[in-house]
Amino acid sequence: MTKETSEIIGTDAGDARVTWHTAERARFVLAVSHGAGGGVEARDLRALAAALPHHGVTVALVEQPWRVAGKKLAPAPKTLDVGWRGIWPALLNPGLPVISGGRSAGARVACRTAVELGARAVLALSFPLHPPGKPEKSRADELLGSGVTTLVVQGGNDPFGKPEEFPAGSFELVEVPYGDHGFAVPKRAEITQDEAVTVITDAVVKWVGSLE
Predict the structure, then answer these.
(1) Measured on CA atoms in the order 17, 25, 174, 202, is the torsion positive or negative?
(2) Contact present, 16 and 8 (Cβ < 8 Å)
(3) Cβ of 184: how many Cβ atoms within 10 Å?
(4) Rounded to whole angstroms, how far apart are CA atoms 118 and 120?
(5) With bands split at pLDDT 50, 70 and 90, how would you rate the model's confidence at 3?
(6) Which of 32, 130, 127, 40 is nearest to 84 (CA)?
(7) Which pTM does this prediction carry?
(8) Rounded to 5°, angle at Cα 37 from 31 and 42
(9) What stretches of the chain adopt beta strand conformation (E)?
(10) Gap between the Cα atoms of 203 and 183, Å rounded
């Protein structure tokens, strides 16, 4: 059994919202935020919130202040970091190690702030290695600089960076076959959409199980 509760948390960037999916006997808190073009209703975030509590991980879905305020465009990266820092004390309240995570822009925030905030590890979903069609504008330094154990889950057909484009590094990378930036797979793919989502949840469950 898991329970779901929400709370509003004031930050220097405005009010954020955290929705808790609480595990009965949790070992970790996994905090994940959304990208610049969507919210916590993203298929991968919903799937993790449903699956992880059954494996001893409390999931905190974090809505950045700009989303809570109803704005359609994300602010600058520095402002996103301010919002993330502001919710961190609430994530520590359960007294458990916190895994910092996010999808797309949220993954960048998690990487940039992991060491500063004392994150146990980073989960980077659909890390935007570069803008579509602009591989020369790499953001690899953010990923390589996370400073903690890091798992990247990347769609095999992500225009923001396919798995084979990623540099060598100490992070682990799991590919979701055929997946785009939102892990959607085309109907012609050899796996179904449900199977693609299961690749994500299985990979995260296995990875979290390896953490001390």
Answers:
(1) negative
(2) yes
(3) 15
(4) 6
(5) confident
(6) 32
(7) 0.97
(8) 50
(9) 3-11, 14-22, 28-33, 57-63, 98-103, 121-125, 149-155, 172-176
(10) 14
Q: How many residues does the chain have?
A: 212
Return the residue matching tokens 């709370």: 7
CB–CB of 124/172 below 8 Å?
no
Distance CA 88, CA 1 (A): 25
Contacts of 78 (CB under 8 A, 6+ apart): none
Residue-wise pLDDT tens digits, 46-70 = 999 999 999 999 999 999 999 999 9
The pLDDT tens digits for 161-183 are: 999 999 999 999 999 999 999 99
Return the SS3 of 66: helix
Q: C-alpha dihedral over 3, 18, 105, 57, to 10 degrees?
A: -30
| Maximum Cα–Cα distance across the chain | 47
User: At 37, is the pLDDT very low, low, confident or very high (cuts 50, 70, 90)?
Assistant: confident
CA-based nearest residue to 77, from 98, 52, 102:
102
**Using CA atoms, how far apart are residues 23 and 188, in angstroms rounded to an integer?**
37
CA 73 to chain CA centroid, nearest Å: 19
Quote the distance between the C-alpha of residue 97 and its chain's center.
Answer: 16
What type of residue is 64?
A: Q
Q: At residue 154, what are phi and psi to the nearest 5 degrees? A: -130, 135
**pLDDT tens-digit series, residues 134-157:** 999 999 999 999 999 999 999 999
At 91 the pLDDT is 97
